Amino acid sequence: MGFAQKAGLATIASLLCTAQIMPETRSLAQELPAAEDGHVEELTPHTFGEFVLNSNLPVVVDFSTAWCVPCRQLKPIYEQVCVDLRGQVRCASYDAHQDDYAVSRSYGINDGFPTVIPFCRGVPGEELHLISLETFRMDETVLMQGMKELVDSCQ
Fold first, then answer.
1. Which of 41, 55, 62, 96 pairs as cysteine with 104 (C-beta 3.0–4.6 A)?
2. Strands (E), 7-73
3. Containing domain of residue 14, as a range?
4. 0.90 exceeded by pTM
5. Around Cβ 42, how many Cβ atoms within 10 Å?
């Protein structure tokens, strides 16, 4: 599914994360750093909506869990790509276990962590590829290519 096809999922997630359901979202959002400097923001159920769905820049979210070994392997790769693309994309990480997988399930992620989802103007796109088909390992260049394509398509 492309960005337009997932608009319905974005609406559902937006309802889960708006100030109407979680009134503290607006005040917490004011405390969030810009995350345009390559910093990977650790999101909570209360900060997810404001950071991801209301961003002027493209946003990439790494949905992971603390117990996931591949998630820990991805972390330094993801952080480096975010630094390399600073100012062009906002990067975030979301521990799916913290809310019993409610936010991740709203985006169709039931298992299979890590899953990296791009958002363009609040609308989720297709999962970014993390594995090189040549080496069958997580690859920084593969992730970088997907994130650059996101930046280009959101303009």
1. 96
2. 40-43, 59-64
3. 7-153
4. no
5. 11
